[in-house]
Records
---
Amino acid sequence: MDAHAHAHEMPWIRRYIFSTDHKTIAIQFLLMSLFFLVVGGLLAMMMRWQLGFPSEPMPGGMLLPDEMMAPTPAGAIMLPEFYNSLVTMHGTIMIFFAIMPLLVGVFGNLLIPLQIGADDMAFPRLNMASFWMAFPAGLLMLASFAVEGGAAGAGWTSYAPLSASGEYTGVYLGQQLWLISLTILGFASLAGAVNYITTIINMRAPGMTWFRMPLATWALFITAILILLAIPILAGALIMLLFDQTIGTAFFLPASDGEPLLWQHLFWFFGHPEVYILILPAMGITSDVLANGARKPVFGYHAMVLAIVAIAFLSWIVWGHHMFQSGMNPMLGTTFMITTMVIAVPSAIKVFNWLGTIYKGNIHLHTPMLHALGFVSMFIIGGLSGVFMASTPVDVYIHDTYFIVAHLHYVLFGGSLFAIFAGITFWYPKMFGRLMNEKWGRIHFWLTMILYNIVFWPMHSIGIQGHMRRIYDPTQYEFLQPLQPINQFITMAAFALVAVQVIYALNFIISIWKGKKAGNNPWKANSLEWTVPSPPPHGNFELVPIVYRGPYEYSAPDVEEDYWLQDAPPPSETAAPALEPQPVAD
Amino acid sequence: MSQAAASTADRHPMPGMMVYNVKLGMWIFLLSEVMFFTALIGSYIILRFAHPDHFAEPGAVLNVPLTAFNTFVLICSSVSMVKAYAAITQGDQKGLRFWLLVTILLGTFFVGVQVVEYIILAREGFVPMAELYGVAHEIEGAALYGATFYTMTGFHGTHVTIGILCMWFVLYRAWQGKYSADNYGAVEIMGLYWHFVDLVWIILFTIVYLI
Ligand code: HEM
Ligand SMILES: [Cu+2]
């Protein structure tokens, strides 16, 4: 099959809509998940309005139907049921339809074949199917807002029995759609994971040994293994919960002697690996970008790989730290406390290696580098607050408070999302052939960084003072009323935080047409994706690349430039290369 | 590995890699299947330990001899699957078609018996919720015992059914002569899946019917 010749004759529906090219699928995932990122952000804004100004008429609230906002002469006031749906859908959409597809769907698809020197994924059609399951699953999730009873309202963790019977939340169909949508998304993730793992094991270019792979690909590989093993657990749990709701089973219903705690165990046995699914690719991206910005090899490359593997392994035995307060056996609590403390060790190793990487580097503060540095600093804060919560005696006080909300936003927004910004800016040329605007990129970074901390840092403090999470109206408790000014302050800052994202959106959109042409290697990086044009042609590589060295040979003494492409023949071999490049055979 | 690697589904694996893509992909996919059944079986074990009174003695509700025979049938279908695979590695087209057909028939028989068993059990009131299923009374504990039983065996049956559908497709391609002694990847991965489903059943039969 001669893919190159056919590329131009394909009808546009095969080229842009039902494409099997991994780069096109990556862009499809990018547009989809950025859309859901915006939706999730808007839901959060409505929540913040209610928290800052409890039960005051919401600007624009009149546009929403009466089941969500109660109309009064002064304006529309949010209903408590709708607030529950907002909390649930914000978490669900952000985790499953924004961050996860951004990290795994976008960067997995874009980077894996390019960084290992393959022409595409092992199963391109399965890859296409993966997107075309994920996208309808997202639409289904959104559609649940429109059904009777509204969208699911039992939290993104959907604890039973609250979620197991519509009698408790008033949400019947919405909760079922939630379950079905996530099950479909699970299939999409599995399809992707099988593809990524097979591709990385089987389709690396000659010379691309395991320890010459860029850390982004390493992280995506381990993430795919976590997805492969964790998602089926979630699927099993979702299906059992769906049966409880629809066909009369009682897996999680205490009234018939079912076990609500079983849901928590299943959910978190999936859930903790899931949070590492949401951070490992971000760590990989950060490693690549930091080495590039510091013009130095990654400090402790092997330790970085081993730390990823260790985190993935340990992530299976810490799930109980979400259940300290659940009535689980206290002995188990201690066990999980110890394992959780242990998992902080490989995380810390990574942090120290990042610091080692930039130490005495020739630092170039380009936009991706800024975001990568943002990632490291915010991840330190989030990781440290994690260690606090992991201590059972401390967690008694802060469990289910805004302290948890602060922690998860420091790791997911400060961590994952900053790394995503870094990654999108860094690899934008490989998707659109152009660079994003540097100046506006930096302005966006600094505004986001500052506002983000203004929004989320105070949440630690109000959490410690007892402000519970997932609460419709904090002022109903007298002891929380003094915190209301802080809540209002957070709300105003949150509006500003969302507003400055418009800068990024405009930069992203305008650069598609107006950005500076990138050329092959605008960041002077080493890995294989920078040896091909931006964007790479269908089939990626003209000749199967031959890899001679690792991806982080920055400032190597043997060459004049401060970078050294992975497929550049070593000086001694230029005269008589040992391996002849082979034409791509497919 | 040159014989199998020539299959159309194959896409230049890494030099020296011994397993072609589709086969590797199937192995990886089966790992996730292991986790799926682990979730179901694990839940069963936890619920049963927490509430032993809801679960009947072996044989009290479920028909063990009938299912034992059915298990035997499914194991036979694995043997015939091996025969089909062995045939095509020798280039024996007729043998391939014959043994595939035998496998399909045995698998269909298995599913058929299971459906009949479900119907009989439901008539006796072994359903999770009597009013939903129009039966007069409900065997005590069926909301848990029945729930786990139908979920586990039902998902297994679904896997067998999907396997049968795929096998029809393989048989159709076999009739077209798409496979040969150099190209039998699809038959091989079909076999992998089928043996896996078989293995799951042996575990389920043991813990649901016998223990
Ligand atoms: C050093 C590593 C980490 C430690 C020790 C840690 C510890 C914890 C603990 C103990 C909790 C439960 C608190 C409670 O509910 O009382 C928790 C919650 C949470 N963590 Fe972490 N964590 C770490 C890293 C991460 C990372 C990397 C992520 C995601 C990228 C993450 C995401 C979350 C989320 C989303 C929750 C809240 C779950 C919910 O909705 O209840 N954590 N963490
Ligand atoms: Cu956790």
---
Amino acid sequence: MADFVIVGAGECGARAAFALREKGFDGTITLIGSETHLPYERPPLSKEALVAGAGPKLVADAERYAAAGIAVLSGRTVLEIDRAGRRVRLGDGTALPYDKLLLATGARPRTLPGMACGGRIAALRSHDDATRIRAHLVEGSHVAILGGGFIGLELAASARKLGASVTLVEGLPRVLSRGVPAEIAAIVASRHAAEGVEVLCGAKVAGIEERPGEVRLTLEDGRVVSASLLVVGIGAVPNTELAEAAGLAVDNGIAVDGLLRTSDPDILAAGDCTSYPLPLYGDRRVRLESWRNAQEQGQLAAANMLGGGEAHCAVPWFWSDQYDMTLQIAGLADGAATTVRRDLGEGAFLLFHLDAEGRLIAASGIGKGNAVARDIRLAEMLIAARRHPDPAALAAPETKLKTLLAA
Amino acid sequence: MSDTWIEVCAADEIDEEDVIRFDHAGRTFAIYRSPEDTYHATDGLCTHEKIHLADGLVMDHIIECPKHNGRFDYKTGEAKGAPVCVDLRTYPVKVEGGTVFIGL
Ligand SMILES: Cc1cc2nc3c(=O)[nH]c(=O)nc-3n(C[C@H](O)[C@H](O)[C@H](O)COP(=O)(O)OP(=O)(O)OC[C@H]3O[C@@H](n4cnc5c(N)ncnc54)[C@H](O)[C@@H]3O)c2cc1C
Ligand code: FES
């Protein structure tokens, strides 16, 4: 009987474990994770779960793992991969043999140079981080957020809902400068301002100082922000150390091929920790931090651990919720030559991004609730099919995108 | 079965391969018209998070949730994989004289 081991019990590792069983694998499955919780979904940590103070939203409860015969080792860290002996070694010295190994080690928050989290400085990645941050989000408190990316902005929205005041400091001239069109970022920023968030763009940090009862941020222009807590949301770095130490190729993430194989064919990697070639974008190597990508790659890794030979050919997709607005993005917009706008009413709109040949390469949209969801999904299918839709039809809300797909 | 038939809408108010939301007596439903021109009904909210499925996309006999793309077979209510694992409840539907009715 074969032994399959999965390192990293997050979204990706958990989905892979269940997918192995769904695909009929009858050997042993061991899912090992450093966190003490069963695998849970991270997106709610900055959104509704943070506001509600809810417990972790589990991918599956303990009974489902038991029923599927998946051994979950929580609170255990893999320290070493012994490729020659085909074993992983855990922190307590246990060695587990594997026939196939999946690395789904995810990512961790990028930290400020020389400044660890602790005290009044926090980052948001885990449920425990969220619990710690939430303790500071009370009526009348003041939090400072460094970084105007998705996590910082979602956190700002949640903090406002809890009655805390917020100052968000972004070094670049605008928020969401990575991967989000300026037109959409501007709407997000003005909504935050309208909700009372102090958004400081183009603001460089000169110093951070923890004092009794406060943390102080001094900006290069001399401004001082005093807060009860500073949350650092300046991106994430992939957890590649284990792979690197085992001599596997690493290139902004554990480098895998289209079948999610690392440079060792018995070791696969998937989710936030990997970089891989995207066929739809000329095999450009990317690393995505996206929930659906973690799921899809987990499922694909499972198929390929079983020798499926399926290549990853998905369209990147991401969403973010802030206040009553949802933003969705499908595809990669850099490399776009033209942008076409479609208005859906009540302020909701979509932007279609076409390359120089008129091929649709990305679509982004924002609106209340799920106003843009259906059209983004259809755009995603057009992107996957490498279509060159008529820009005039894209711009006209009365033309159903479904008809373009059928055309 | 002691279904009460509740009037939903005119049959042509739902496009082929599409869905609408129908609220009745404090509950919300999703009413579908399939590509084969049959009509179906399920609970209106996704079983992953409480999101209105009527904002989602109908493809063949699948409704895809607008929030995280969870999929259900709207004819049977069956959840078709991650992130949804709990099936949707379905309801009988009939079309009479060009009007769609749901049996509650
Ligand atoms: C606050 C927040 C909000 C988000 N919101 C969105 C959103 O709105 N939309 C979206 O698309 N995406 C969102 N994401 C991103 C999404 O959650 C991630 O893409 C997804 O969690 C990646 O899953 P993963 O399994 O690859 O990695 P992770 O979820 O990071 O899981 C990896 C696990 O492996 C464990 N691990 C690492 N090394 C070892 C080791 N050596 N031994 C044992 N265990 C190990 C880690 O502790 C961790 O538990 C959000 C992320 C965060 C943090
Ligand atoms: S709310 Fe429907 S899939 Fe998540």
---
Amino acid sequence: MKLVVLAGTQGSGKTSVLLHVIKVLVRDGNKPAVVKVDCLWTDDDQRFDRLNIPVRVGLARDMCPDHFTIYNTEEMLKWAEAEGADVLLNETAGLCLRCAPYPDKCLAICVIDVTTGPNTPLKVGPLLTTADIVVMTKGDIVSQAEREVFRERVLDVNPDCMVVEANGLTGKGASEIAELIEAGMNVCDNIVLRHTPPLAICSLCTGETRIARKHHMGVLRQMDGFTEYRGE
Amino acid sequence: MNKKPILTILGGVDKDGVPEPIRSVEVSPGEILGIVGPTGSGKSTLIADIEQLAQGDTATGRTILIDGVKPDACTRVDPRKKLVSQLSQNMHFLADMNVEDFLQMHARSRGKAECLSEKVIELANTLTGEPIAPHCPLTVLSGGQSRSLMTADIAVISDSPVVLIDEIENAGIKKQEALELLAGEGKIVIVVTHDPMLALMAARRIVIRNGAMTNIITTSANEQHVCNKIVEVDNWLMSLRETIRRGDIVEDMA
Ligand SMILES: Nc1nc2c(ncn2[C@@H]2O[C@H](COP(=O)(O)OP(=O)(O)OP(=O)(O)O)[C@@H](O)[C@H]2O)c(=O)[nH]1
Ligand SMILES: [Mg+2]
Ligand SMILES: [Zn+2]
């Protein structure tokens, strides 16, 4: 079983690109299954369903979507196995830019929209910096120079990644991504995270609603960057 | 500047999956090739095939060869080795940066000296009537300014041996000078156009219908004569535009 984790901010083109990639994978005789993780709602499963492959949705609700993905990875793999799949494609919600849900033995793909401007690669964090492949989408909307500047910024923060220029509308880049997936390694037991999730428990996490500073405990960070542990 | 390669387009299939009539087109350094056809016929798709050096892996199944052979993967993706520059239909920049910073970063991505940015701005200002300042934010440039800047950027920074142009005529820029600038130094220029002047400046033009290359027309002596006439009219229109912009009175038919 191969595991592909596809992350990226909302609307960056993850599903659009993945739909094209799945067509290539199926054409080449692979058996992909898809799990979409989102926070509150998604209709991506209906889009995947049209390709007649096993599809499942997980909603993280109150949990950090990346933590939810990590916590459920084992279950997703078991499900895909039972469905007779040989590649599990996991599209995440990717909203929490402090965490990255990539295990070590997977193909980690970060999908990023070039129209958000060349400063975006600096803002995305571990989602981008720990990915194996960075897929740039929506290049049809900007000039070639702008795409090249964006690519340079991506390589500034993740020098070892492979950058693929893809298009969710035309399917450009899909065969390249499919090839990389096919060449990828299999998952094994005891996979570990690439990026350590930050320690972020505070009294707000446990239901505090009063805003005044004196009510707060836990790992807390001030506007000036000073971080401390307050409490027992 | 990279070495000057010969580009070959091997035919694929049309929108219905039927093999296209033209099976092979060879383009030599220094040639301007036009691409014509009705809106939606697949002209931009052909440009896209060339831009990504398609290897039978796009919807059309076309293959692009460089000097008669398949290009390697690195040539396809690394901007430092890119054989193809593209001037696209998108007339506006979205990046939240000023002109100078953007050009310097683009030069860096192409492995070129950052000081080339000055030369780009200087050249761009010869193509547009509205001067561009180095500290101007990209997002406030007019369509004509953006096009001029992109054209000069391709000539100076990208400097690839193949240049693709998609519908340049829609912008307020000196078309003929822009095309001559891009075609300089033995580059292959491939231009998608409905504009009679640009189409007839090309030595040959490919006709596209329903996604297929259906014909190649060589520009005749008569067509070249017509082209010269259009250039005169175009220059006259451009000078009238300048007169109006200056707030002067239009004197006569010149
Ligand atoms: N112009 C253009 N639009 C694109 C491209 N890729 C995707 N889109 C559009 O962008 C929008 C969002 O695409 P999705 O594939 O749903 O994005 P997503 O990342 O899966 O979104 P979520 O799952 O909601 O986070 C859709 O309207 C797509 O049609 C592209 O390459 N070019
Ligand atoms: Mg999606
Ligand atoms: Zn998180």
